[in-house]
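ingest -> fold -> write
write: protein_1
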Amino acid sequence: MPGARKILYGTERVLDAKREQIRDFLSDWDLDFGTKVRCYVEGETEIGALKHATREISGIEYINLRGQVIASQGKGLSFKDSLKNDLKSKVFSIVFIDADRADYVRTLKKAAEEDLITGGFYVAKPDFEFAHFTLEELINVVLLTAKKLNISTTSSKSLLQELRNVASTKEFFKMISKNYPELSAISKGEEWGRSLMKYALEHKEDSPLVKAALMTARATRIKFDYSRRKVRVDSITGECVKR
């Protein structure tokens, strides 16, 4: 079939191809471990969650933005410049940010409008935890983590009553630390992110968080040039749609 080699291998002539195309060919046979997907996230929690879901898959690099979607002068590449470098290197870019900074969200959607994002983006509202879990589920994760750390504490019913008006992760951990000091060892970070993803994989397989992790893993097996020709990232939804 005309074009079959390009579809299967990413190029008609593998040995004469550019480095990025050879990387894609080799990675299909698990012979190359170069970066194929670059995930931009806001913190260690997101990194921990995604790493837990994709831990056996190579080719994924995580960039902690630490809220620096709009790079300050003199602090390295701007976010948009990094996305342009991804395009040049034929690396999929997938972005995870919170909705609490409207200026960051605008920058992200503007980048999508300019066709600079290739893998998709996810905006968590109001933040990563409360976008994907109910208050009761977050409490369950805390108690499961406490059990793992051999920490004796109160019941989920008592915690739910105490935290019933909490609406953000910052407030969530502030209240726990204030009222249950024995749980102060549990806080945001990679370990907390791993606990969240473990819970999601076991109890919320159809959640947007699990689907996002699966999309990240799947991107390592997709031919960049083929995907680029066929789909683009919608600047409103962040999803990949047909061109």
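write: protein_2
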Amino acid sequence: MFKLYFKKILCVLVVMSFFITLLFTASCGDKSETKTNDGKNNQATEDKSGDGENPEQAEDLKDVVKDNLGEFDFGGYTYRILAREGWRLDEEEQIGEVLNDAIYRRNRNVEERFNFKMKEIWFDTYDVAPATRNSLMSADNSYDIMLIRGPTAYEYASEGMLRPMTDLPYIDLSKPYWDEWLTAQFTIANKVFFAAGAYDIQNYGASAMLFNKPLAQNLGIGDIYSIVRDGEWTFDKFAEFGKMAMKDLNGDGVITDADQHAFLGVTRGVQPAFWIAGGAKTISFDEDNMPYLSALEERFINVWFKMVDILVTDGVWFHDVKDPNDHSPENHAFLDGIFRDGRSLFIRGGVGSAKDFRDMDIDFGIIPYPKYDVQQENYYSQLGWIEPVSIPIYADDDNVEMTSVILEALACEAQRLVIPVYMETILKRKFTRDAESEEMIDIVWANRVFDWGDCIWVHHLRDGLFSKIYQRSSDTLISELEKVEPKLQKDVDKTVDAFLELN
């Protein structure tokens, strides 16, 4: 059912943009709900005031959406949130930056409404897992919620150390500030431990490409935006343009970082972005919501063969030849520098990556990754990572009730204050340079796909098998998948069995 509805969203975004705008300026004080025909909240609005909220529209539409929470008083309770720096729910002060200040206002509004105070406790990336596990194992009641890296969160859930979202009595996942489509992709064995809410703007990120507009014009490749709109932006078209872009500038007969390139990106980002864009997944779910290895199916095999032929065999992809799997800031800066210099037609990124090039002199645009072929109906975008809100198993019923109220209110208030700022003011107005890129962001965002082999069982697939064989002949794929399948299946079976045993 989700897939059927999902295919309609692109038309809704283009033809009904006015109504989408109304949806995301909705207040949290209403007696009815507004959703698109696929049940998802396409959160975009027109920001007239400069701070992400249009006061006149908010006043006119304050009765459109309501969280239905009623009256609660938490007596000044200090609500403790474990998070890592860079993936947080709170901002401690207003600094005159629209997104920061919108998050600040959202949180202070909810605190005042229910009489509590947020306190975030931050850890470095590699300290989060030990801190969370120690707290959960000792049941020390140190935190009310935890933001845990995806693979670790599912590990803890399968071990019975987290409470499912379905335990939270005041969470209404049918509301438009919860993303039903994405939450369904997070669900395993019909157990909903994690949900995608509007309070976490990371759920609105997705893979995209940036392209050099003057270089595209000089190559005579035409209007890329029109090609995307017409459904003709495919792997073949990408390869055609890429081959036109590659040029040995210094004439030494070798393509290096000193030359002109077609496409830039690091291995762990490029490969899953392409296979997902081609309508394939490494892990799929059957009708009983049970995961299985779908990388051995015909669709994935065909997408992989074509992806490798274009990126590797034809040399359309350029990366750090010393360590193509390096995801370090230094490697990203190395590739970004080539794009800044105007020596690449495309670069791998996300819908928010344009912020990294705001001061770039050369004009650029944003487009989705290409489809496998013209028969593929939609453009699909990789949702590359999650750090979902997790509820410790030691939370008692009173604490769970409080958490459900707070998360529901934060999600609703985020829809009104934060998402319009993020989608319209930040992504579209501050980071993009043309109206067409704004339209492309809607396309990218509407078609987000979460692949468990890219985000959860990542050590087996994305960072394991695929990072090792990307330079080899594509005919090794099946044999390599057959080698890794027993180990992966063992982990899958262990996880599924654990979830099935959970009450």
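write: annotation protein_2
DSSP finds 20 helices and 14 strands in the chain.
The radius of gyration is 23 Å.
pipeline exit 0
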